């Protein structure tokens, strides 16, 4: 613009080739999420209930499903031992493999939801006594439950409290290295 007689062409080569960019492979080792497996190659019509039915023997031990897409899901077990046991079993309608051998989408889902993929724990036993008492007191009506029913419910709650206290004491004794036979 200033009338400089020299035509200098200075092209700078880009440092990165953005047109041919490939995301790095998500590498998840076997020790990272050992209680999670990939369930794949099942019909698109399958729903959560169908997958839970396939793994019904693990329901009591703790098992949950996280969907990746129509034909891929993540199976979350309560422990790595249970997951290894599931990997060794054969299923007719689904295929399973460890998360380290999973598809890129399944690994990405596992990475994104890692905090939600903690080992499944069974829900604690509950009682409707507190809810019933709150509703009855809020409405200002008398309870229709007999004294025997109330006493049975109270006894059940006391047993649950005692069981929880005993389990906590046993955990503490084990942690402290105290002798269990002396208790």
Automatic annotation (TrEMBL):
Coiled-coil annotation reads: 143-174
Q: Which UniProt keywords apply?
A: Coiled coil
Instruction: Note the Gene3D superfamilies from the entry.
Output: 3.30.70.330
Q: Does the keyword Coiled coil apply?
A: yes
Q: Which domain of life is it from?
A: Eukaryota
Q: What is this protein called?
A: R3H domain and coiled-coil containing 1 like
Organism of provenance: Sarcophilus harrisii
Q: What is the lineage of its organism?
A: Eukaryota, Metazoa, Chordata, Craniata, Vertebrata
